[in-house]
Fold MFS transporter.
Amino acid sequence: MVTVPTRVRLGYAVGSFCTANFTTIPGLLLLIYMTNVLAVDPLLAGVVVFLPKAWDLIANTLVGQWSDRTVSRWGPRRPWLLGGAAILPVAFVVMFIGPPLTGVPAALFVGAAFLIAASGYALYEVPYKAMPAEMTHDYHERTSLLQWRMIFIAIGIGMSGILAPILAGDTVEGYRLMGVVFGVILLLAMLASFFGTAGAPYTGQAEPEASLKAQLKAARTSRPFMWLLGLSSAQTLGAYVMLAGAPYFAAYTVGSTGATTTLFAALVGPMLVTMPLWVWLAKKLDKRGAMILSGVLFMSGAVAAVATPLFGPVYAHAVIVVVGVGYAGLQLLQFSMLADVIAYDGMVSGKRRGGVFTGLWTAVESAVAAFGATIYGATLAIGGFRESDPANPVVQPESAEFAVLIGITVVPAVIILLGVLMTFKYDLTSAKMSQVSQDVT
């Protein structure tokens, strides 16, 4: 068994600040930034958040293949981390620069900046996700390795979920400051992961797959990958519907815009303290059983949040803690199982094509995450939510406040339930991995 040194674990994990901040901040603030600061119609704003992600289906797949075929003294993945660092931070700052525009022109400006930022994220994130599967062959060592990553993700989500709303407030100047601060954080995290993974062990296949077509066919015909992609997509969609609704839930259901910060603390807190528990549960229940448990906890907390108008803010925070415990398990197990799928494919095929697997994964994950905002925006539009800007606040009708609540509770709970049901079909267990490893050797 190859044990990954602590220095490399930390060097790899710090790159998760990029993952956490770039996925959380647009998911949390981009919709409300457009509807409540730039006076963009909520349905149009939801579409703008989603459409750049359609490009990811192409960009991420290409980046995955390019990184599979890269030969360098830094390894096949690490050069791409630098490429992403050159593009993403700058484009992120521009997204929230606060142009002197409103309505459709503002939506187009934000959408274009988001498209460029998503391209930079693809250059970084696709190779980054492929690296754990190539650091060790051991089934449980991969979970232990990714435990560090999840801790940094929790810290990153806490930063973006707590600090970003405080900096942004509800003004153009606030969003501009937030964009600059987190653009710098993104840059530092991406560079740190490049330098921190120098000298990482490499146990992947030396021979890349010959063509993109063959790689895509391998991903499409991999039963473990397709089931994992399906169940993780459901989980991600449910989580990002809830994420997009968090500022609205805080403002219109809990009754305080400042509650966005404390609700995020309730969500992220469990991720910081329950990772050892989820590693232990993954060994006791296998990863599939632990994944089912985490989905049930997430779903239960979301359903319970429906009663927030009856029981008040303290109750709302308590049920979000339950969601956070489930979310911690989902995050850890998704990426540990993805690393298993890549390692399994490498053992069976003898080819290096993890980049295409992670490219497809990241493309679908990004599109699904953005679609969460689209679903929540559509829910608000159906409820009659009225767009505004700081100079012209409006009073929302009761139907809009009801849509705010249902959109963050019932809708994500139903989606998560679908993910739980799909998890029962996932069959890449510890026993199966051990058997394949023995057959290969």
Residues 147 and 432 are 22 Å apart (CA to CA).
